[in-house]
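Translate structure to sequence.
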């Protein structure tokens, strides 16, 4: 009974902290993009606009929930729930520190890839059930995008699994720490670059936000959604960004650890809690998401598919072969 209570408390803490981060990531994104465009961003609600996420939540909560007359109503209503549930469930297998993890699965990495694939079904169903050409095209684009980039994402992470000898995320971090450099991003630079690019496509973020593409498809699969159902998709997208940022930190940047040669030079850094190092790495990746959105234009859809199939997948295969060769003969 006590163990169950502890698990419930841990789950509430993780979900609460992540959802708070999501709320203020939207604020940070507006401020950073505003600065990139030589403007201030949100300033009116609270000091320096700090209460803007609260105002947005109140506004969207009280908006009218409209379901199109010709939509497949039951599927239309459940689609955003599918996306959010199978995105949020990934938080349970992410180790935020050596001893802070909700479910320490031996196949944690595989679990995240599988549940991320299932969440895409929600987007496809949302596009189809809306009975709108713009929504349908957004759903089709999302399907093609995932087929292209999930292969590259999986292959880039396969190199990490091969090097660490485990699918357990905690063991992957420990294996990195025991290497000379303390991270996999440098020796597996090809896989790291492939992962970063594929992560943008996997989360439908600019410059690969083709399933939404406001200039072409109004809002893509989100076109017919409003009020709280729209917010569920929005929430799932930002949680997925944190999942990918966490995967990057765990699989390529040493997770909650810092390399030994750094602590040998600056010994007091060992006293810093691991969750702080983990958070810094995650924040850096989230900043990269926002900076890229403010900097790069959206790709055409044919360009997106060409990059996935003709560049990233071959590069990921080459990276995997190099790691296998090194593992076998060196």
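Result:
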């Amino acid at each position: 009974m006590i163990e169950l209570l502890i698990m419930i408390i841990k789950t509430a803490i993780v979900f609460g902290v992540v959802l708070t981060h999501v709320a203020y990531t939207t604020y940070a994104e507006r401020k950073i993009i505003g600065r990139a465009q030589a403007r201030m961003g949100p300033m009116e609600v609270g000091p320096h606009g700090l209460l803007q996420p609260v105002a947005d939540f109140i506004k969207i909560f009280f908006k009218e929930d409209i379901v199109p007359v010709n939509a497949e109503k039951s599927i239309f209503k459940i689609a955003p729930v599918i996306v959010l549930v199978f995105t949020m469930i990934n938080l349970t297998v992410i180790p935020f520190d050596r001893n802070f993890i909700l479910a320490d699965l031996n196949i944690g990495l595989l679990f995240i890839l599988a549940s991320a694939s299932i969440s895409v079904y929600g987007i496809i169903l949302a596009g189809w059930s809306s009975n709108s050409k713009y929504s349908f095209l957004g759903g089709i684009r999302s399907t093609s995008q995932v087929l292209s980039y999930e292969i590259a994402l999986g292959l880039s992470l396969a190199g990490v699994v091969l090097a660490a000898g485990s699918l357990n995320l905690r063991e992957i971090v420990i294996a990195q720490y025991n290497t000379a450099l303390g991270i996999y991003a440098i020796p597996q630079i090809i896989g790291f670059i492939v992962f970063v690019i594929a992560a943008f496509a996997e989360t439908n973020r600019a410059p690969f936000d083709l399933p939404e593409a406001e200039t072409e498809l109004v809002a893509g699969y989100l076109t017919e959604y409003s009020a709280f159902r729209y917010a569920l998709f929005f929430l799932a997208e930002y949680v997925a960004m944190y999942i990918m940022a966490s995967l990057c930190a765990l699989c390529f940047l040493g997770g909650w650890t810092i390399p030994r040669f750094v602590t040998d030079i600056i010994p007091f850094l060992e006293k810093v809690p691991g969750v702080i190092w983990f958070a810094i790495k995650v924040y850096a990746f989230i900043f990269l998401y926002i900076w890229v959105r403010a900097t790069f234009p959206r790709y055409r859809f044919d360009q997106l598919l060409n990059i996935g199939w003709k560049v990233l997948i071959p590069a990921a295969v080459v990276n995997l072969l190099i790691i296998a060769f090194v593992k076998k003969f060196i």
